[in-house]
Write a structure and sequence with these properties.
- The protein has about 260 residues and is an alpha/beta fold.
- About 50% of the residues lie in helices and about 10% in strands.
- It has eleven helices and five strands.
- It has helices spanning about 10-30, 35-45, 80-85, 90-100, 125-145, 155-160, 170, 190-195, 195-220, 235-240, 240-255, and strands at about 70-75, 110-115, 150-155, 175-180, 180-185.
- A five-stranded mixed beta sheet has the order 2-1-3-5-4, sandwiched between helices.
- A hairpin with a 2-residue loop joins strand 4 and strand 5.
- Helix 1 runs parallel beside helix 5.
């Protein structure tokens, strides 16, 4: 039953939450037999206007598809669109340092974004864009990876997992339940890059404790998982082939 006000309008937050549930229920039925099959489906997606905003196409994930910890950012920026991997630019380098501080290297966690295509001008994806793309592809990723714990970076991820508007400053550090999966919202690394002085120090410590809590919960649920390699992975080097594929594909499309 949909509740309406005296003017016959549905409450905006109730509408957002209802559509979030409906989209999740619709896409939850679509399953993929492997990560490769899901990746091919994402690459061929052109369902929303973001695909036509000038980027090189959907940006996929990095990390093992059986990781107990999934890290979800907002959307790809310029470096991510160039190389085809999430959080590999300046924000990603800061994320790597934050993860290392709690004993994690990037090759042991699954990293992806709410929206897969780069918004023009690196703008922040809208809540509707996040809900639409996330309810199709992130939902499929979660169904395939089956993470024990999710870390949501920034307000776009926070609002997707909550299903309604909320502020990251007040919400970070507080667990969210997303269809039975605990989600820890925290600041996006891009937010840290905009801070300075005492604000930066405080924000870094907050992210540290949020990531530590997420790792400890995931480790308790998957005690055999190895969290760290002896050497830091070179993400840009590992994405060389994906970068080449993206640029060759874009050149062919421009000739057609």
């Amino acid at each position: 039953m949909i509740l309406l006000d005296l003017f016959g309008h549905e409450d905006p937050e109730e509408y957002a939450a209802r559509r979030h549930r409906e989209l999740y229920e619709e896409t939850e039925k679509i399953t993929y037999p492997s990560h490769e099959a899901l990746a091919e489906a994402i690459r061929s997606c052109s369902r929303c206007p973001l695909r036509k905003e000038g980027g090189l196409g959907p940006v996929l994930s990095t990390g093992p598809s059986d990781s107990p910890l999934m890290i979800v950012g907002e959307g790809p920026g310029g470096v991510e669109d160039d190389y085809g991997g999430p959080l590999v630019g300046p924000s990603g380098q800061l994320l790597d340092k934050a993860l290392l501080s709690v004993g994690i290297t990037r090759d042991h966690v699954y990293v992806t974004n709410i929206v897969k295509c780069r918004p023009r001008g690196n703008r922040t994806p809208t809540m509707e864009e996040g809900r639409f793309c996330g309810s199709i592809w992130l939902a499929a990723e979660i169904a395939l990876v089956k993470p024990k714990v999710i870390v949501g970076l920034g307000k776009v991820a926070l609002r997707f997992f909550l299903g309604h508007e909320a502020g990251i400053i007040r919400s970070r550090g507080h667990w969210i339940d997303y269809h039975g999966i605990p989600v820890m919202p925290t600041f996006h690394p891009a937010y840290l890059l905009r801070q300075s002085g005492r604000s930066l120090v405080d924000a870094k410590w907050q992210v540290y404790y949020d990531l530590l809590a997420a790792k400890e919960k995931a480790a308790a649920l998957s005690p055999q998982w190895v969290w760290k390699s002896e050497t830091m992975p070179n993400l840009l080097e590992n994405l060389t082939e994906e970068r080449k594929r993206r640029h060759e594909g874009n050149h062919i499309s421009s000739l057609q």
